[in-house]
Design brief:
A 3-stranded mixed sheet has the order 2-1-17, with helices on one face. With 311 residues, it is α/β, with parallel strands linked by helices. The two termini are 18 Å apart. The chain has helices spanning 37-57, 107-115, 138-141, 161-171, 194-197, 215-227, 237-241, 263-268, 271-278, 289-295, and strands at residues 7-12, 61-66, 83-85, 90-93, 122-125, 142-145, 150-154, 174-178, 181-184, 187-190, 198-200, 204-207, 231-234, 248-251, 257-262, 282-286, 304-305. The chain has 10 helices and 17 strands. Strand 6 (142-145) and strand 7 (150-154) form a beta hairpin. It is globular and about 45 Å long. This is Arginine deiminase-related protein.
């Protein structure tokens, strides 16, 4: 199984704004005072378009799908939470915490991929769990070490343990389960998505180990990464606040590997951390300030990786 892919899907926003339904447990979101909604969306579109241009310039195969105005989907720019695409032709659809995010799931996006020559064999649909108030938000909640058959999950209101284990059984992953926290107004609160505090590359892992308060859990997670030969790049909680955990390794032209992140994440890294990462792949960063502030997500959340076989 490959850990990285050359193909990704990205959704271009039409009505991006701070989603009040997700802000209840995503403590990274902020209100940008004094900006009209249309201005926020225009800034987000500009950041999105520049980001796509940079990815395509290095040979990443980006399928851009336009969001539509019929649905109220302010977070549609983060497709990796509702869908994942797998090498065996499986597509997984996930249950979402925020009601207005459930409308992001669109079958026409699967049709678009099939038109591009990707094969979809089977759809694994977990969305009925929403009726029971149970959620698992795609590769936001699950970090898949595809090559080593492990899935990492920081439990939160958006990542249910039992459903995670069910996913692991269905897709043949060994579950690595823990809790990760951030400090909010002096209190330790669960981080809403695993991919905010951790990134898995082919030969490295970026992780804020300090966010795993339980020492046994922390050791267990780090031991799993070390067992699989990954170089561990430790980041701080302050760097997590700048989305330094929200990176993704992708492949460009001639299979060259890139570690994709936002400009804020890149700027928050130390020279030593940058050198560690550059031993593995070239860094590609782009300014996502508006998207990060209002959306509380960053570069990794914007890219849904496509591992489907091609005809």
């Amino acid at each position: 199984m490959k850990q990285t892919t050359n193909a990704i899907v990205m959704i271009r926003p039409v009505a991006f704004r701070m989603n009040e339904q997700t802000a209840v447990n995503n403590y990274y979101q902020k209100v940008l005072d004094g900006l009209l909604p249309s201005t926020v969306n225009a800034k987000a579109q500009q950041e999105f378009d520049t980001f796509v241009e940079k990815l395509r310039a290095v040979g990443v195969d980006v399928t851009v799908v336009e969001d539509n105005l019929e649905t109220d989907t302010p977070d549609s720019i983060f497709p990796n939470n509702w869908v994942s695409f797998h090498e065996n032709g499986d597509v997984a659809l996930y249950p979402m915490f925020a009601e207005n995010r459930r409308q992001e799931r669109r079958e026409d996006i699967l049709d678009t991929l099939e038109e591009k020559g990707f094969e979809i064999a089977n759809i694994m649909d977990y969305t009925s769990a929403e009726e029971d108030g149970i959620f698992l938000e795609g590769t936001g909640s699950l970090l898949l070490d595809r090559a080593n058959g492990k899935a990492y999950c920081a439990l939160s209101p958006r990542a249910d343990e039992e459903l995670f284990i069910e996913f692991c059984e269905d897709f043949d992953y060994a579950p690595v389960i823990f809790e990760a926290f951030q400090t909010v107004d002096g209190e330790r609160k669960l981080i809403y998505h695993t991919n905010v505090m951790m990134c898995l590359g082919e030969t490295f892992a970026v992780i804020c180990a300090d966010s795993i308060d339980d020492k046994k859990e922390r050791k267990m997670v780090l031991d799993n990464l070390k067992q699989d030969g990954k170089e561990i790049v430790l980041i701080t909680e302050a760097q997590v606040n700048n989305f330094a955990g929200n990176m993704l390794e992708v492949r460009g032209k001639d299979d060259k590997r890139y570690i994709v992140m936002s400009a804020a994440a890149h700027q928050s890294l130390t020279a030593k951390q940058i050198a560690q990462l550059e031993n593995h792949a070239e860094i590609l960063s782009s300014s996502l300030d508006t998207i990060e502030a209002c959306g509380g997500g960053s570069a990794r959340c914007m890219m849904a990786e496509v591992f489907l076989p091609r005809t």
